[in-house]
Design a protein that fits this description.
single chain, 274 residues, alpha/beta, Rossmann fold, eight-stranded mixed beta sheet, 7 helices, Alpha/beta hydrolase, AB_hydrolase_fold, BD-FAE-like_dom
Length: 274
């Protein structure tokens, strides 16, 4: 495996991606093109949680997937959106421009988003698959399309009371475009399959978020798999010592750690890995 950092640019705006490329295996006797996952970590749009970056990338590596981490736009003087969507579109375009020597299966690009990063992925799954919205948010300048998405304790609807974000000021800092506040309403018949997981006791992102997205997927008759675990705090990642914050045992939850295996089983069922 080879780890790299690359700087990409959109409209004079630079952003960083971290990539984890699998090596070819000589024992196979022939080259293999691997699927690739693009990871959008959480952090409340104020930072990128490193607990949801390299540990997640390496786990996907272990299941035969290249991995890329997108360090998307955060809250500052300008809103997060629509630039964050364009950054994700640029990353997919960048993947499609990679040489054949990278051995990427460009028909199997998977998006994975956690918490705030889940909002970006959830919104992208609606906008990038709708011709009019793709043009409206200037995603039509980029080539390529994702094949599926994985959402972990995602922010879906920013208007849910008692859930992140807590007030209109933060919502406006993320985006004044109210059409982006409810990602479930962006879904359409061309949106891609989704795997979603969350815990019922999530104290930051109310569980109704994931439920609304899954329900809309069902209404559109789109492939979706949903796992609601009975307990666990927000931001568990794997719920193991790998991603536990030092001295904080509340980040341990062996049962929810099974989500990654469930997600990979789902990807195999969807013929997106293996």
């Amino acid at each position: 495996m080879k780890a790299e950092e690359n700087n990409l640019t959109i409209s004079n705006h630079d952003f960083k991606v971290k990539s984890y490329w699998l090596d070819q295996v000589a024992d196979f006797g022939q080259p293999v093109d691997y699927p690739i996952v693009v990871i959008c970590p959480g952090g409340g749009f104020t930072f990128h949680s490193q607990r949801e970056e390299e540990p997640v990338a390496l786990r996907f590596n272990s299941f035969g997937m290249h991995a890329v981490v997108l360090e998307y736009k955060l809250i500052d003087k300008e809103p997060v959106y629509p630039l964050a969507l364009q950054e994700l579109g640029k990353v997919i375009d960048w993947i499609n421009q990679q040489p054949a020597s990278r051995h990427i299966d460009k028909q199997r690009i998977i998006l994975a988003g956690f918490s705030a990063g889940g909002h970006i992925v959830a919104a992208y799954n609606g906008i990038a698959t709708d011709e009019k919205l793709r043009k409206k948010y200037h995603l039509d300048q980029f080539s390529g399309q994702h094949a599926a998405a994985i959402l972990g304790y995602p922010v879906i609807d920013m208007t849910v009371k008692g859930s992140f974000p807590s007030d209109d000021k933060v919502r406006e800092e993320i985006t004044p475009d109210k059409a982006l506040w409810k990602t479930q309403d962006l879904l359409n018949k061309n949106s891609k399959p989704v795997f979603v997981w969350q815990t019922r006791t999530d104290e930051l992102v109310n569980v109704i978020n994931s439920l609304m997205y899954v329900e809309k997927m069902n209404q559109l008759d789109l492939p979706v798999e949903y796992h609601l675990f009975g307990s666990g705090i927000h931001g568990l990642v794997f719920g193991t010592y790998v991603t536990k914050k030092p001295g904080k045992d509340k980040y341990l939850n062996a049962w929810t750690a099974k989500w990654i295996e469930l997600a990979l089983n789902w990807l195999e069922m969807m013929k997106l890995i293996g």
